[in-house]
């Protein structure tokens, strides 16, 4: 298990490096406004994906037989395609009327449903790979997806596609990578004996996923994407592009630490829980201290060198991204500390606490945007306030995870 986790984590690290290098090229092809439109479309689509899929992909690893799992994945994708078509038609129709939507760029009516649908295909492919134990495919995905996406976005950009080139590149990466994950699953079930459930029975059996997990998925996605959406609404797409690129660059160390340490930590505390060992909270505290030291170093670097380094890496037009990174550094630091430890709640069986924190963090960030908008605050002040609000949400999540670690200790220590 540890070897498999290390393989996936290593591939993810390579993928993050490829995505980072791709970003350095993309900022020299696309304008901040184009990147802002793209980042906002991705943010909205990420929130739409749980609704149009019904989160049925989350049920794939637990479906009783393999053929039924593939059929349920197909049902999720078909439902996503149908709802995406309805969304596209609704936006296109509304754009023809005298409504606020009519002032939005025409690409939005196809870009939002396209990205949402391609993301559902990608997620279903991931879950099928998990079900069939295709961990090598998951590792390949970690490198293949960012390579395809970044490569296509660069080619479309050179072909002068504008912001739509970023969307087409992302969808291309999703669909092609999903196909490589789907192919082994279909091959393994094509000649397999056994009867699968009917579509109606499958939907009835796993109805709790669209009823309960879909809204939960939207809240979780919104808690992450709300800063991008709020900046776009308050300050326009050019500033949203600066913020989105800043968030993308700062997400690299968070993802690397979360993948490399999170897998090992989760596996270790799960083993300790099974063994009835009473040292889980000590492991939590020791790891938290080390992560805090790394986060502090990162904050010091961002505050002192963030602006010139961003301008040097991305080019002078992106200097503001470095300025915003300074304002948002507290949120990134708390995320780096909390993300690898967040598996504690799941292993302790406290999944409802995670939902409560996501909802609370979303409402807190939303309230911050409303207050800053009423105050006519500047971009820098707004990003600082939102960053502190987001950091507060991560801090609460850290405390809940530590309490869960202590509860695991208490339940096994006697």
TrEMBL record:
Locations listed in the record: Cell membrane
Main location: membrane
Keyword Cell membrane: yes
Keywords assigned: Cell membrane, Membrane, Transmembrane, Transmembrane helix
Keyword Nuclease among record annotations: no
InterPro entries named in the record: Poly_Biosynth_Transport (IPR050833)
Membrane spanning residue stretches: 7-29, 35-52, 72-96, 108-130, 142-161, 167-186, 209-239, 245-266, 287-306, 381-400
Entry membrane topology: Multi-pass membrane protein
Coiled coil stretches, renumbered: none
Highest taxon of the lineage: Bacteria
Matches recorded under PANTHER family: LIPOPOLYSACCHARIDE BIOSYNTHESIS PROTEIN WZXC (PTHR30250:SF10), PST FAMILY PREDICTED COLANIC ACID TRANSPORTER (PTHR30250)
Family as reported in the entry's similarity comment: Belongs to the polysaccharide synthase family.
Protein name: Lipopolysaccharide biosynthesis protein
Organism: Citricoccus parietis
Organism lineage: Bacteria, Bacillati, Actinomycetota, Actinomycetes, Micrococcales
């Amino acid at each position: 298990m540890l070897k498999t986790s290390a393989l996936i984590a290593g591939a993810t690290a390579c993928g993050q490096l490829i995505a980072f290098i791709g970003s350095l090229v993309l900022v020299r092809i696309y304008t901040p406004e184009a990147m802002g439109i793209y980042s906002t479309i991705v943010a909205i689509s990420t929130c739409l994906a749980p609704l149009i899929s019904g989160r049925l992909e989350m049920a794939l690893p637990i479906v009783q037989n393999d053929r039924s799992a593939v059929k349920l994945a197909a049902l999720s994708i078909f439902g996503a395609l149908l709802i995406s078509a309805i969304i596209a038609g609704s936006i296109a129709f509304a754009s023809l009327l005298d409504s606020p939507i009519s002032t939005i760029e025409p690409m939005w009516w196809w870009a939002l449903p396209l990205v949402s649908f391609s993301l559902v295909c990608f997620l279903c492919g991931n879950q099928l790979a998990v079900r069939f134990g295709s961990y090598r495919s998951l590792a390949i995905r970690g490198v293949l997806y960012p390579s395809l996406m970044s490569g296509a976005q660069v080619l479309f950009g050179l072909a002068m596609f504008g912001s739509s080139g970023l969307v087409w590149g992302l969808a291309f990466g999703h669909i092609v990578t999903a196909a490589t994950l789907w192919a082994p699953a279909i091959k393994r079930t094509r000649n397999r004996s056994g009867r699968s459930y009917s579509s109606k029975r499958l939907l009835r059996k796993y109805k709790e996923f669209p009823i309960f997990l879909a809204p939960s998925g939207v809240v979780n996605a919104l808690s992450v994407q709300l800063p991008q959406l709020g900046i776009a609404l308050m300050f326009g797409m050019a500033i949203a592009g600066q913020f989105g690129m800043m968030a993308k660059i700062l997400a690299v160390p968070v993802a690397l630490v979360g993948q490399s340490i999170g897998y090992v930590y989760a596996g270790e505390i799960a083993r300790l829980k099974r063994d009835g060992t009473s040292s889980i909270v000590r492991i939590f505290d020791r790891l938290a201290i080390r992560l805090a030291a790394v986060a502090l170093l990162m904050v010091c670097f961002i505050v002192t060198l963030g602006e010139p380094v961003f301008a040097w890496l991305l080019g002078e037009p992106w200097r503001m991204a470095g300025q915003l990174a300074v304002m948002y550094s507290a949120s990134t630091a708390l995320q780096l500390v909390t993300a690898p430890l967040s598996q504690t709640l799941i292993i302790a069986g406290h999944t409802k606490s995670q939902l409560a924190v996501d909802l609370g963090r979303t409402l807190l960030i939303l309230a911050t945007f409303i207050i800053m908008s009423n105050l006519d605050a500047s971009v820098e002040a707004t990003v600082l306030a939102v960053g502190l609000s987001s950091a507060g949400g991560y801090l609460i999540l850290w405390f809940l995870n530590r309490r869960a670690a202590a509860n695991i200790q208490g339940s096994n220590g006697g």
